[in-house]
Design brief:
Elements lengths: L4 H19 L40 H21 L5 H26 L1
């Protein structure tokens, strides 16, 4: 049976690395991902924006109108285009071929009945 010494050493090393990295994740400590002045604490409002005073409306930003218009037109074009596309499924093709085959068999049967 293998000795537990290497496993305990590896577990201890991993534990020390994790606990040291967890210690540095406080609000005041800097890390390699955030630096002081760049990390804004959430204030409890959506997108970290304080609500406007009553009776005042929010002004649209420059990107909002083109984004909304483009999104609406994309939905309309896709809706119309996907509903107007031809039905090219295998089942539809097989159904049409079966109808053609039955029609040709019916015509052949009626032609043979008329010749008799």
């Amino acid at each position: 049976m293998a000795s537990a010494k290497p496993f305990s050493a590896a577990a201890g090393m991993l534990r020390s690395r994790l606990t040291s990295s967890l210690r540095h994740r406080g609000a005041d400590a800097t890390s390699r991902w955030t630096s002081p002045g760049h990390q804004v604490r959430p204030n409890g409002y959506f997108l970290n924006r304080t609500p406007l005073p009553p009776g005042q409306s929010r002004k649209w930003e420059d990107w909002e109108l083109p984004c909304y218009v483009t999104s609406f037109l994309t939905i309309v074009i896709l809706g119309v285009g996907l509903n107007a596309k031809p039905d090219l499924t295998l089942e539809t093709w097989a159904h049409q071929k079966a109808i053609e085959r039955l029609e040709s068999q019916r015509l052949a049967a009626s032609a043979s009945d008329e010749s008799d």
